[in-house]
Amino acid sequence: MKKIAFVKDFGAYLKVKEGMIVCSLKDRVLWTVSPVEVHSIVVLATSSISSEVIRLANEYGIDLVFFKGYEPIAKLIPATYGGSLRVWLKQLAAWKRDKERYARQFIYGKLHNQWVTLRYYERKYGISLNASEIDKLMREVLLKSTVEEIMQTESEAAKVYWSGIRALLPKELGFKARRKRGEAKDLFNVSLNIGYGMLRRSVWGAVISAGLNPYLGFLHKVRPGRTSLVFDLMEEFRSPFVDRKLLGIARENPKALQDKKTVYGIEIKEEEIYTQARRLANSLLHGEEYRPFLAK
């Protein structure tokens, strides 16, 4: 699998030296990579790029992706329309042919990771949170033949999962059930919505960088302006990267969630998200089995 290179330092400069792409800051070399090893270069900070890097990117089919803050704002695709067009065509073919195959894996990964979260607390405190129910539904989802059936199973698991989360949260937080943005009044739901917003931006960037079309999802319906594939891929990361971290903060010090800096400070493991997006792109390109991200 080819690499994704990141430009994260303000004032960095990308140039070509002896056939290699070099990222430097003043007189210090930050990284060097061979063009044959890299799939895309993601520019996250204000920086400069030499025209030789763009020429080399075109020659080797490397995408250049530019961010402002956490959101992708532009993508420079090689004039040869190499990698991205191939991925898009394969993604469209998979969407037409067997969207259920990918939808099953997204939800299998989501339920597995929810099970891991509840099971962790069951073992730690010797209590029952009905994690075994989610384990049962996780196995059943692999037998479902339609997206509607898959989403119905996800809905059944959500009732068990959020009931377990409610049992773990301090009563003073007033968490009754999961509420989306606009409906959330209690502190934990508000914190979850902030965390999911951060997660969405990371997944969106990863999807763009991997050459995937963010609007063509397998699980979530395609609607104008809706990044359906981003919502698909997010499912695997919600519990391990957001729920579990906020739950830990809430149990240790519930009042800490009142400080938004604490909530915005949770770590979203971008490297694993970018790897998973590339795994999805490779599955589409080469017909390989897609394996969801499974937390431990």
Characterization of this structure:
It is globular, with a radius of gyration of 21 Å. It has helices at 51-60, 83-125, 131-141, 147-168, 187-209, 228-234, 238-252, 260-264, 270-286; strands spanning 3-7, 12-17, 20-25, 28-33, 38-43, 47-49, 63-68, 71-76. It has two domains: 3-76, Ribosomal Protein L15, Chain: K, domain 2, CATH 3.100.10.20; 83-286, Four Helix Bundle (Hemerythrin (Met), subunit A) (Up-down Bundle). Strand 7 (63-68) and strand 8 (71-76) form a beta hairpin. The protein is 52% helix and 15% strand. Helix 2 (83-125) packs antiparallel against helix 3 (131-141), helix 3 (131-141) packs antiparallel against helix 4 (147-168) and helix 5 crosses helix 9 (270-286). With 296 residues, it is α/β, with parallel strands linked by helices. The protein contains nine helices and eight strands. It is an enzyme of class 3 (hydrolase). One of its GO terms (molecular function) is metal ion binding. This is CRISPR-associated endonuclease Cas1.
User: Which structural class fits the helix and strand makeup?
Assistant: alpha/beta
Largest sheet: 4 strands, mixed
Q: In sequence order, what are the helices and strands, one letter per element?
A: EEEEEEHEEHHHHHHHH
Low-confidence stretches: none
Query: Taking all residues together, what is the mean pLDDT?
Result: 92
CATH-level-2 architecture of the largest domain:
Up-down Bundle
The N- to C-terminal Cα distance equals 23 Å
State Rg: 21 Å
> What is the third-level CATH name, the topology of the largest domain?
Four Helix Bundle (Hemerythrin (Met), subunit A)
Any idea of the CATH class of the largest domain?
A: Mainly Alpha
Approximate shape: globular
Helix percentage: 40-55%
Subunit structure: Homodimer, forms a heterotetramer with a Cas2 homodimer.
Family: Belongs to the CRISPR-associated endonuclease Cas1 family.
Binding site for Mn(2+): 154, 220, 235
Enzyme class: hydrolase
